[in-house]
Design goal:
With 508 residues, the chain is α/β, with parallel strands linked by helices. Helix 3 runs parallel beside helix 4, helix 8 packs across helix 9 (272-282) and helix 16 packs antiparallel against helix 17. It starts with 8 loop residues before the first helix and ends in a 9-residue tail after the last helix.
């Protein structure tokens, strides 16, 4: 019975349907919702709110909200609200095509920020006060404690700061997850901060539940709906080559004594290529690996199952439907090997630096000198966002960026003279990998980096053009430290916008 999920007598009396709960949210509110990469997000209230907003718009009434989450969510949340033009502002990350379309059309303000910064920014009031929090849980205990589900994200901050709270109790989420979470309540704002009391990635420093004053909880809604994440593509030849280059490099670093035999704690961004790297690690000969990351995806679940990975600390899951079923079938096994934390801890710069994480993240493009664009197509059109990649690139022991060397059937080179948008400066980038090869940029001057990137990472169709640009820049640039020909630096992007390819006309 649904009531068996609510053990607090007072809160059992506040159960309503999603429509009544959504009606508590007023136009212009700042609303914070749970959810991180398609896991642990509320399933019913956002859809009911979208219907409520659509009805208001049909009456000619203005109704939009400011939406905060942990990261991206799913069509039932971002998609539903964007589709009815219900969002005035979105932060800190998104991946929904409807929201993306509105952002790039200039109709929706989007604030793309480092995920480790969100809690602090909200505490300082940069996004107004939080009027309502909508949080998914698997159960409410006798003392009012809330059992988190498949992500934690910023839920602690939302519950601490929201004026009123709506709780979705999702019966699809296993109650057996109680005990997997580690919610730390010891953070503080400057100048009162203390060290995070962790020295190993699997240390537990908090409690297993979230807390919220019952008087703040205005409504409780029952749901029974699964998390929704897209399946990963099968590992193709290019992804396998990228994984192979990186794994060979890691073995080389172990042989040189720069990494221990079990490496350092791994962080992996979400995507087909990072997932392929994880799949490659399964048969690489490494053992006793550790993961301190923001998201666990299919490949990491396989590493845990095979015993190659000892534990994984994260803030949310990004499982395909098949991996979700595997997790649920063998929850007792994974329960002792996975720790779910608040994202202000999973992405905390202090912890990333202390543990010496190996950050492995995707990119859209890299330039000759190692600057990385993770977020914008042709400099202006947002894809998803920076997410947590900057937290690990800036603070980790080793920052690796991965991509195929071309995109859009070869019409775009992922290696360009100058990136059209900078998310990670050359100072935060150690290694760039494409299917063509791997460039280790550590200890290299700008011109040395350019030669390494061109020779190891560029696609043959674009290598000569990059070399020609670099040679002429070395000759004609007004200064020679980081040579550029400014009138040409972004000409490859402009050519694509005008002709549909970065290739010069003679090569088309």
């Amino acid at each position: 019975m649904p009531d068996s999920r609510i053990h607090h007598a007072t809160l059992r009396q506040r159960v309503v349907d999603a429509a009544h709960a959504a009606a508590l949210i007023q136009p212009g509110e700042t609303v914070a919702m749970s959810g991180f990469t398609g896991s642990g997000y509320p399933k019913a209230v956002p859809q009911a709110l979208a219907a409520h907003i659509a009805q208001a718009h049909a009456r000619g009434e203005a109704f939009r909200i400011q939406l905060l989450t942990g990261a991206s969510t799913a069509p039932e949340l971002d998609g539903a609200l964007a589709q009815v033009d219900g969002l005035a502002m979105r932060m800190p990350f998104q991946s929904d095509p409807n929201a993306r379309k509105q952002i790039n059309a200039g109709k929706l303000d989007y604030l793309d920020i480092h995920l480790s910064h969100v809690a602090q920014h909200v505490w300082f009031g940069f996004y107004n006060e939080i009027d309502t929090a909508v949080i998914e849980v698997s159960a409410i205990l006798e003392d009012g404690a809330l059992v988190p589900t498949t992500s934690v994200g910023n839920n602690k901050t939302w519950l601490d700061l929201a004026k009123k709270v709506i709780i979705e109790v999702n019966q699809w989420q296993p109650v057996e997850m109680l005990g997997m979470h580690d919610i730390y309540y010891g953070t503080a704002l400057p100048p009162h901060r203390l060290p995070i009391p962790m020295v190993h990635g699997d240390d537990r420093i908090g409690q297993t539940t979230l807390r919220c004053e019952p008087d703040k909880i205005a409504a409780v809604v029952f749901t029974d709906a699964p998390d929704r994440n897209s399946p990963f593509n099968p590992v193709d030849a290019d992804s396998a080559r990228i994984a192979g280059h990186l794994i060979d490099f890691l073995k080389h670093e172990v042989a040189r004594g720069r990494l221990p035999a079990n490496l350092l704690p791994l962080q992996s961004g979400v995507g087909n290529i990072p997932n392929a790297v994880l799949a490659g690690l399964a048969s690489s000969g490494f053992h006793g690996l550790e993961a301190y990351t923001e998201v666990i995806q299919d490949g990491m679940l396989e590493l845990l199952k095979s015993g190659v990975l000892r534990y994984a600390s994260c803030t949310g899951f990004a499982f395909s439907p098949e991996a979700n079923e595997e997790f649920r079938r063998n929850l007792a096994f994974y329960r002792s090997r996975i720790i779910l934390r608040s994202q202000e801890i999973s992405n905390h710069p202090e912890m990333v630096r202390r543990l010496g994480c190996i950050g492995m993240n995707g990119m859209l493009e890299a330039d000759l000198y190692g600057n990385i664009n993770s977020t914008h197509v042709m400099g202006s059109s947002i894809m998803n966002g920076i997410g947590g990649s900057g937290d690990f690139a800036r603070n980790g022991f080793l920052s690796v960026f991965l991509s195929t060397s071309t995109a859009k059937h070869g019409s775009i080179s992922s290696i360009v003279p100058m990136v059209s948008h900078v998310d990670h400066t050359e100072h935060d980038v150690a290694v760039i990998v494409t299917e063509q090869g791997l460039a280790d940029l550590r200890g290299l001057s700008p011109k040395q980096r350019a030669r390494a990137v061109i020779s190891h990472c560029a696609h043959p169709d674009y290598r000569d053009g990059l070399q020609d640009y670099f040679d002429r820049a070395c000759r004609d640039s007004y200064a020679k430290h980081t040579p550029h020909l400014l009138p040409e630096a972004l000409s490859w992007h402009q050519r694509w916008l005008q002709t549909g390819t970065m290739q010069p006309s003679a090569n088309r």
